[in-house]
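ok here's Citrate synthase:
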Amino acid sequence: MADTAKSAKLTIGEQTYDLPIYSPTVGPDVLDIRKLYGQAGVFTYDPGFTSTASCDSTITFIDGDEGILLHRGYPIDQLASKSHYLEVCYLLMYGELPTAAELEDFENTITRHTMIHEQMHNFFRGFRRDAHPMATMVGVVGAMSAFYHDSTDISDPRQREIASHRLIAKMPTIAAMAYKYSIGQPFVYPRNDLDYAANFLHMCFSVPAEKYEVNPILARAMDRIFTLHADHEQNASTSTVRLASSSGANPFACIAAGIACLWGPAHGGANQACLEMLKEIGSVDRIPEFIARAKDKNDPFRLMGFGHRVYKNRDPRATVMKQSADEVLDLLGVENNPILQVAKELEKQALEDPYFIDKKLFPNVDFYSGIILEAMGFPTSMFTPIFALSRTVGWVSQWKEQLADPQHKIGRPRQLYLGSTLRDYTDIESR
Ligand code: CMC
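and the structure:
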């Protein structure tokens, strides 16, 4: 924790309390309220954590007003255009860009951990065929705790590292198997001669009956989707991983908790919800009707793929994702795709609408990622699993950082209690 020379004064009644202020390397100052309850007997109130820093971290920085996203200081647009996913994984996990030898070693390690324990195949077969792949992933990743006992001792840094490698390596295999199972096709084993993204496409789209050539442009687009989702600071699923881990839970249980949280439509489920919305809109002439619904306070409908808790400017990931969407659609010759036409026109109309301008609601990363994934041939149900496998490196990096921090303690928020005061139990006959 940074030393502080500054402090703020909080006056409650006659008493004044000094609250230390910490200055980060970039971003707003942070008030330290840890001793407030002990000294003043009050809690702070911040549902949704809109003004609360839950930890200190050196991994990712976001400036939502300026639309900036940095991993270990490097801007996301540079990483997306010059780097690739496994190099970004190394950067997130270890803090620096790797040398050529370090990268080779890391890629080798990840590649050689991609197979899952053969007995885990039985787990998949226990699910209904129509199970959502996210349901399967929550279950199977949680079940990894039962298969990899030699990397669940969280007090051992080497075991933490091995668990992290296993999770990054096996998550594409698990996501692809969840998909194959849902469409009734045989599981496809990983291929060590392919890179991370190409191998994932191979495991999803190849079948034993014929040869499958991975298109390098699609593999590059897939890699970019992974890179753009790799980490995003203390978002809901990452905070869930940290909270689960704060009790000392094993890494596989913590990441399964993160996957469960990511599933919701306000978070990682937005890409699926966005594409379903675009299909429901169906044609450009129906856009005004849906924009009117999004603005109507009495209608719960929201424009999926718009708005963000932190970005009140353009989501920098969306800018890169939009370029990628153009490239992929160009390659696949689907530039006249009606969904893309609806997406482009919806984006234009929303960005010109005073409601969206005033509330600073811009398209987010999920607005474009769904379009790319659909064009590649993924069903909408696979969109969130792909987000989950990309975010795994962010989760494990944040988890490792938390466990290495000597200050970490169990997460235990307090509450503003508004329920009944003490009352006596009434016998059932008297109620
Ligand atoms: N469509 C219509 N109105 C919206 C939208 C939207 N997509 N997003 C926010 N608003 C309005 C909202 O009704 C509210 O209006 P008012 O101030 O009049 O009550 C105002 O904008 C602020 O919204 P909020 O819900 O207080 O903002 P939040 O920071 O709590 O929510 C959000 C952020 C992402 C949950 C929200 O913008 C949303 O539901 N968006 C659609 C889902 C989506 O695309 N999620 C993906 C996020 S990016 C991927 C990720 O990182 O997980």
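+1. Residues 29 and 289 are 43 Å apart (CA to CA).
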